[in-house]
Specification:
It is built from three helices and ten strands, in the order βββββββαβββαα. It is of the alpha+beta class and 190 residues long. Strand 1 (11-20) and strand 2 form a beta hairpin. It starts with 10 loop residues before the first strand and ends in a 10-residue tail after the last helix. The protein folds into two domains: 3-45, no CATH class; 49-186, Nucleoside Triphosphate Pyrophosphohydrolase, CATH 3.90.79.10.
Length: 190
């Protein structure tokens, strides 16, 4: 915490877990506000996730189509998934790319790390760019029905602009790639 922000910071008092789920938990924390009053903060506790913008070549990306129950639609998204317990971010992004698209990558480059919804969740999303793709076999989870789609990068950006791609990690990942451009090629993880 920065010293200049001290007058904004809430102090943790206690935690109550109200739901323990398979993928997420729901917690209610009691906090002391900067003015000394007590308040509660309800939020979703999430282990974190990864997403990846896989480039087949400099002009073509691989996205996935899947049905998303909360919004009742088939969406077009980056390959992505939740971190497993004690799993590294890099291990997770490699696993998710392979499971959802069948591809492995020669190089993963960090793109951006952000909080999708910090008002009610503690999830951190780590986005990468993958290049040097090699085709393999899709191995989706038993409850995932996913279709990989090859698409010109420019078309994916146009779908974002037209509101046809609305998933936040996909919008942010594609726009960050468009913004950062060739600078991404300089700082690979592997």
């Amino acid at each position: 915490m920065k010293k200049r922000d001290a007058h904004l910071v809430e102090t943790f008092v206690r935690k109550k877990r109200v739901w323990r789920g398979r993928a997420v938990n729901f917690d209610v924390d009691t906090v002391r506000l900067p003015d000394g009053k007590i308040a509660t903060r309800e939020y979703l506790s999430h282990p974190g996730a990864v997403g990846v913008v896989p480039f087949l070549d400099k002009d073509t990306v691989v996205l996935v189509r899947q049905y998303r129950h909360p919004v009742g639609e088939v969406t077009l998204e980056l390959p992505a998934g939740k971190l497993d317990a004690r799993e590294s971010v890099l291990t997770c992004v490699k696993r998710e790319l392979a499971e959802e698209t069948g591809y492995t990558a020669a190089k993963f480059t960090p793109l951006i790390r952000y909080w999708p919804t910090p008002a009610f969740a503690d999830e951190v999303l780590h986005l990468f760019v993958a290049t040097g793709l090699k085709a393999g076999k899709v191995d989706a989870d038993d409850d995932e029905f996913i279709e990989a789609v090859h698409m010109p990068f420019k078309k994916a950006l146009e779908l974002v602009r037209k509101g046809k791609i609305r998933d936040s990690k996909t919008v942010i990942g594609l726009l960050a790639c468009a913004s950062y451009g060739r600078n991404l090629r300089r700082k690979a993880v592997i």
